[in-house]
Amino acid sequence: MKKLPILFIVVALFCSSASAQERREREKPTRDREKTAKQNERKAYGYGAGEIKIANPADWIKNLEKPIFSGPQPGEKVPSFAATNLRGENAGEELDPVAMAKDKLHLMFFVSKSRTFGRFLGQLRQQLQAIEGNSKQPWAMSVIVCTDDANEAEKSFAVLDQRYPKNLVVGLSKDGSAGPPAYGLDRNLTATVIVAKNGRVAHNLPYAGGAFYTQPHILGAIAGTMGVDHDTLRKLIGATPGDAAAASSRRGTRGNGKNSEATPKRGFRKQLAPLVQSGTITREEAGELSRSSGDATALRTKIGELMKAGKLTRKEAGELYSDAFPENARRR
Length: 332
Hints:
The protein has a seven-stranded mixed β-sheet with strand order 2-1-5-4-3-6-7. Helices cover about 45% and strands about 10% of the residues. With about 325 residues, it is α/β, with parallel strands linked by helices.
């Protein structure tokens, strides 16, 4: 019989402790609770979690549905060519990215549109700066826009110019969408990425879509060209950010002024995770959808663009919109 009062005491103490813990949780400052919620949301979506992903560039080639040959292939010489400078005081003047690189390791991008990759290229250049500073191996990086609409390219790039480090060379091909004749680029691709060493191609990565934003194979090509393993490259990069999609999605938007954007809907990114994981949309596209989720018109426009591009089915588009704006979806 003596055990029964003791049991009641233990139960009472346990309930008291649980009640106190619950009370402390309720009394936590709102800002702390919101911060914890955001951290959990980021972990669920995978942004900023874990180590930098680096992959063998050969795997990218193996995973292509069919072989794609764009530009000089590994072992071939990187030809010099002339382009029009899009940056700074020398904008409009002729430049030769290959000659400018001299004997540096050279990361080259031939892209179809100047705004296709947003902040990604600038942040990748910052990673290269960190690699260069920590390894003492000098790098050059150049971006050549290959398009038949030079005016649109110049206008579009002006929006990005301030986001890019000054040592990122950006030029406009003088030969339109075909690019420099000596390179034999596939004009139907989103980008052709070439990593050169000693004036010859070390790696060639063709990109037909927005998967370019995933970037691990580009970093793998950089590691291979330098002759270091992936762990060493991670140490060389350090804490330098290089994932534009993750960074922009984490930031979100705030403000009450006329120029401030609508705040992304909390939890909407979780709806995008399966689409990213399945490869239906890229992480950058997910970031754009997330930032648009606080504005019905902007979200509808972005979803429409992805449908037109064949990235989303009508059903997927409808589900995304109704998740963000169920009240609007019911009225339609």
